[in-house]
Amino acid sequence: MEAILRVVAMYLFLLLVFRVTGRRTLGESTTYDLLLLLVISETTQQAMVGQDHSMTHAFLLIITFLTLDVLMSVLKQHSHRVERILEDVPLIIVEHGRPLKERMDRVRIDEADVLEAARRLQGIQRLDQIKYAVLERSGTIFVIANDAR
Amino acid sequence: MAQSQHSSGIRRVGDLEIEQDLVFERRQNVVQRVGWGIGVLILLAAMLGGFGDGPLASATLRSPDGLITLRYQRLARDRAPDRLRIEIASAAIRDTEITIGLSQDYFEDVRIHTITPAPLAAEPASGEIRYRFAASDAPVVIHVDLEHDGPGSTAGTIRAHHPDGRHSSITFSQFVFP
Fold first, then answer.
1. Under 8 Å between Cβ of B98 and B141
2. Contact criterion met (CB < 8 Å) for A95 and B1
3. Contact B32 A88 (CB under 8 A)
């Protein structure tokens, strides 16, 4: 029983921590973010597996995690409010070439981040070529160019 | 920015149909900042030993007659190593030996790894495990290295058996974080 409780506690804790630190944490895949992800995953695994390396324990942990995940997605499906709380909402941060500074400050993004995403995704060279830049729920920035319909 | 709302939160913002919700976004930001503050407080508490392993967690107890001095962690963590430092005054020594007892209840909650110095014998007797150690004239210091086996409150009693049949005891309690 303790094993299952650990998984549930860990799942909820990770959900809480990642929502509180905001989507920019681990949102962009820089080398440092990957490292952070590795460290977190190792720490989580050690706390959950403990001394029990049996297959049964492994199966139970995985099943519990996946069941929780399915439960969450069902909850999200049923309630838009729950979905917002669990997953965040997208945010427009550049509109018709104009960076929306107040919003960008709140989500800790600067113009350089937007331009980098624009270059990477669409080969865009300048801010005025951007129609919309959106900070998605995942933490990545998606850019829509001016000539898009 | 013209907005109109569809079901499921998708709004029309200019040319974009998007689930943006600025009110929620602002509220969320406030909650996040509060969360960061709490995170910093947790960090500070942890550094001070509030979750074990630090000045807030360490404690020393002495028996009324001063025979036993125990240094231990009031706050500890599950499956983490821990140590009891037991010092027995030389008045408890009889025939170059001392006997101390550790309550049986405590063993339900911990796994003892090593006792240093190694005891001469370990015997169960009246609700405790009695350890006999070789001793000279100086106060005897015993280190019990253990691991906690389960979260929650735990308590133990240490008894030093006097040569004349009396005993001194210390009762200590620990809170073990999961």
1. no
2. yes
3. no
Q: pLDDT tens-digit profile of A78-92? A: 998 899 988 889 999
**Inter-axis angle of helices A2-21 and A80-87, to 10 degrees?**
80
Cβ(B160)–Cβ(B100) below 8 Å = yes
Hey, is the C-beta of A136 within 8 angstroms of any chain B C-beta? no
The one-letter code for the residue type at A138 is S
Q: Are A108 and A24 in contact (CB under 8 A)?
A: yes
Tally of CB atoms within 10 A around B57: 20
Answer yes or no: do B31 and A20 touch at CB < 8 A: yes
The model's pLDDT over B1-17, given as tens digits with 9 standing for 90+, comes to 444 444 567 888 888 88
Residue A47 and residue A7 in contact, taking contact as beta carbons nearer than 8 Å: no
User: Which of B1, B18, B29 is facing A106, going by the closest CB pair?
Assistant: B29
Q: Which residue of B has its CA nearest to A49?
A: B79
pLDDT at A28: 66
List of chain A residues whose C-beta atoms are within 8 Å of the C-beta of residue B19: 89-90
Instruction: Write out the CATH class of domain B58-177.
Output: mainly beta
Q: How buried is residue B128: exposed, middle or buried, by Cβ count under 10 Å (0-12/13-18/19+)?
A: buried
How far is residue B118's CA from residue B150's CA, in Å, rounded to a whole number?
A: 26
Contact A115, A129 (CB under 8 A): no
The overall pTM is greater than 0.90: no
Instruction: Answer yes or no: is the ipTM higher than 0.85.
Output: no
Angle at B102 between CA B98 and CA B106, to 5 degrees: 165
Matching residue, tokens 């086996």: B149
Contact B79 A50 (CB under 8 A): yes
Contact B9 A84 (CB under 8 A): yes
Q: Does residue B148 contact residue B80 with C-beta atoms inside 8 Å?
A: yes
Count of pairs with CB atoms under 8 A, one residue in A, one in B:
48
* Domain spans, chain B: 3-47, 58-177
